[in-house]
Amino acid sequence: MSVARSIDPDQIGFDPARLARIDEHFGRYVDDGRLAGWQVLVTRRGEIAHSSTYGLRDAEAGRPVEADTLWRIYSMTKPVTSVAAMLLWEEGRFELTDEISRWLPEFADLRVYSKGSALKPFTVPAVEPIRVWHLLTHTAGLTYGFMQTSVVDGIYRAAGYDLYPPADVDLATACQAFGELPLLFQPGTAWGYSVATDVLGRLVEVVSGQSLDAFFADRIFRPLGMTDTHWWAEGDTADRLAALYAPDPRTGRAFRYDKLGALAYEKPLLLSGGGGLISSAADYHRFTQMLLRGGELDGARLLGPRTVRFMTRNHLPGGQDLETLSAGGFAETTLDGIGFGLGFAVVDDPVPSRVPSSPGEYYWGGVASTAFWVDPAEEVTALFFTQLMPSSTYPIRPQLRQLVYSALVD
């Protein structure tokens, strides 16, 4: 096990012995084979209180998790895309209430699923257009094919859109297809985890006149010094990328999942703003510190502080929580007491979920069990990296919160 700190945790309100419980607890996940390895990083007031690694990034090759290990962050790409969109919003390039069909005409004449099967769906016209804020909050009525919880999910899969898109499809072509598929619900009436952030990435491309990778590089990665965040792994990055695993249904032990893991070594045709990035703990730490500091880090200001505060409030209609508005299916969060902002889940009340946190905390995670949160009230950020699909396999995220908040003693 490797543990590093930049400051004595006592100086920023953490009990070191209690922080050590993080490593003891998740060490057992590796020791009994549930995870190959992991990396965790906890900060307060911009100082690293706890940074540790354990286990192997590649169990078959015997390569350990190291400080510069790279991870498929999947849906932790979504907050990056949301920040990209809000950079353009701050420039007055669009309003959050604008219809996206102004830039993406394929979303002009939408239909909403009403009844029937995936082979013979009955649809009705959308009574409300998809607006920019619908994309940011997953209230657009779009969905994901891989969730397999609705007829509309099946229609997505029949069109070739499962966990990954068809191999010959780019982002523009995918959005054309999404515009032709029925919506799961009328825009703005429910919450459904979806390809909305991929569509948002396409909106960034059209509004900015840049490809998504170029925009990310110019406006986010270079200003923040995120030198280890990529769309695919090659050369040195390929050597540092952790292998992808899934649980054996009989034993629960992690087994190598190269069928999907190998895709990270290929340059993608579709730049997925919803799940396409590879990153390191150090890089994503810089991203979360920018958010915690109100949009600025080391002299580079991406967003204004009021914009960050606005993004991290609950934007769900009527201030409702996800338990009330969720259309069902997969999500990277609990639902009770949790709202959704412009790119993040937001804690309105931590009590209903029975998971310690602070009101106003915001967070998200990735399908390979990565996770982060930012707690402005306590000035805490926490990041956890591993590579186990799906993220619902083990209660890693609530357990990490238990361990971090019980170590905070000031």
TrEMBL record:
Gene3D superfamilies membership: DD-peptidase/beta-lactamase superfamily
Leader sequence segment: none
SUPFAM superfamilies, A to Z: beta-lactamase/transpeptidase-like (SSF56601)
A Gene Ontology molecular function term of the record: hydrolase activity
Domain Beta-lactamase-related: start-end pairs: 22-401
Record keywords, A-Z: Hydrolase
EC identifiers of the protein: 3.1.1.103
Protein name: Serine hydrolase domain-containing protein
